[in-house]
Design goal:
Layout (H helix, E strand, L loop, with lengths): L3 E6 L4 H17 L4 E6 L13 E4 L6 H6 L3 E5 L7 H4 L5 H8 L15 H11 L5 E5 L20 H11 L4 E5 L11 E3 L5 H6 L6 E5 L2 H8 L5 E4 L4 H4 L5 E4 L36 H10 L1
């Protein structure tokens, strides 16, 4: 009998790719008789997933058409969920929106991040310390795109991050994950140079506390079932977050002029002319943050 295929095409950032593993699982659960072929930007996130039969890096798909499309029984999943009505109106979580867009029956599938034995051993040797470990993710986004040192829409305000460090520096060995040009916190070990995705995410395996933002590590923590404190500024945990986390959402000023916004309110990169706060002192309540860290 000829083989049948589901072809899942993914574009976007690393966090979106982690969320997409839940969509891939949903596709496989809806079409178990079809081999699942993934084409994406970060294939290393999919290689260890048992429900993915083969993964290709975007742009390196030699003979793909003749193998999976031409006169083949294949279904294509290649639409962009960010430009659907439900996503733009923030009605449903990204994963739910993605599945609904394809007409899939979504049964609550969650993201997966699977490490093989060697990856786990390398992580143990690299990250295990003499003290409990805290990971604080202050600045997200792709390495190599260093046009801004601080993206206010998603990054953690520096003063808030430093207050967290000062409170817990004696109890934990604290690792700051940031972009190369971002401001460094005092009394932390800084991770701000590119490493492999799986190496970066493996730090979570040995972490005791995690204070994160709307970026790849909060998706990775969810995929690893590691409850974390996540600070949300101009983006929404209803759309991008997970219920197992302690999600702390700031109050964004209303009736703020957004001359450059089209279908979304605030740009992920946090353009300066759309900055809505008079100061950063009250963006997050530190007592609420500390309470969350100590109970998560």
């Amino acid at each position: 009998m000829p083989e049948k295929y589901s072809i899942f095409h993914i574009q976007g950032g690393i966090g979106k790719h982690i969320a997409a593993t839940a969509v891939a699982k949903t596709i496989k659960n809806n079409h178990p008789d079809r081999k699942l072929i993934v084409v994406c930007c970060y294939p290393d996130l999919f290689i260890n997933l048992t429900y993915v039969d083969k993964v290709y890096v975007l742009g390196n798909t030699q003979y793909f058409y003749q193998t999976y499309v031409d006169e083949k029984d294949s279904i294509l999943f290649h639409n962009e969920p960010y430009f659907t009505t439900n996503h733009i109106h923030k009605r449903t979580h990204l994963i739910q929106t993605w599945c609904d867009m394809y007409g899939l029956e979504y049964r609550g599938e969650t993201p997966d991040l699977i490490f093989n034995k060697l990856q786990k051993e390398i992580a143990r040797n690299h990250w295990v310390t003499d003290k409990p470990m805290m990971v604080i993710h202050t600045n997200g986004g792709l390495h190599g795109d260093e046009t801004r040192t601080y993206s206010w829409a998603r990054d953690m305000p520096f003063e808030v991050a430093q207050e967290i460090v000062e409170r817990y520096k004696d109890q934990y060995r604290i690792f700051q994950v940031a972009r190369p040009n971002s401001q460094r916190l005092d009394n932390v070990h800084v991770i701000n140079q590119p490493v492999s995705n799986m190496e970066l995410f493996s730090i979570l395996l040995w972490s005791d506390k995690r204070v994160l933002i709307d970026s790849c590590l909060q998706h990775a923590a969810a995929a690893l079932n590691l409850p974390s404190t996540v600070l949300w500024n101009a983006t929404s945990p209803k759309v991008f977050g997970y219920e197992l986390h302690s999600n702390i959402v700031t109050e964004t000023p209303k009736n703020f002029k957004l001359p450059n916004s089209y279908l979304f309110d605030f740009d992920f990169m946090g353009t300066e002319e759309e900055y809505p706060y008079k100061n950063e002192e009250n963006i997050f309540n530190l007592d609420e943050v500390f309470k969350s860290i100590e109970s998560t």
